[in-house]
Amino acid sequence: MSIDPGIPSSDGGIVINIGGQEAERLSEVVSLDTEGRTATVVRGKEHSEIFDNWIKGLKFTHVALVLLHEGAPYKTYTMDLPVVTKVQNPPGDSPQQVVTFRYEKLTVS
Per-residue pLDDT tens for 54-95? Predict the structure, then answer.
């Protein structure tokens, strides 16, 4: 399953909500594997404390990827019991970390 590639991020973007709080805007959703129950995202320039804490091992009951279209929510992918499994820091001064996580259940609304 892919996350609506027809909606460019410049059209509204993708926001990640962690534990019910809007955490930050993402640069990209690289993959959403429904069979392997994993997702990989690229963080944007602004990093939030809640996302940093999730990477450091803080547990949350769910995360949600919210697609925006003209500033309004278009589609939401909610993943239960997410756990970060891999963080790739880019070379140099780029803030765009690549974060992979696994989850137990996916709901699309």
Answer: 999 999 999 999 988 777 888 899 999 999 999 998 877 777
Nearest to 42 by CA among 89, 98, 88: 98
Would you say 57 and 90 are in contact if contact means Cβ atoms under 8 Å apart?
no
Confidence of residue 8 (pLDDT cuts 50, 70, 90): very low
Contact 31, 77 (CB under 8 A): no
Of 8, 87, 103, 4, the closest CA to residue 41 belongs to 87
Q: Residue 21: CB partners within 8 Å, gap ≥ 6?
A: 50
The dihedral region occupied by 92, where left means phi > 0, alpha psi between -120 and 50, and beta the remainder, is left
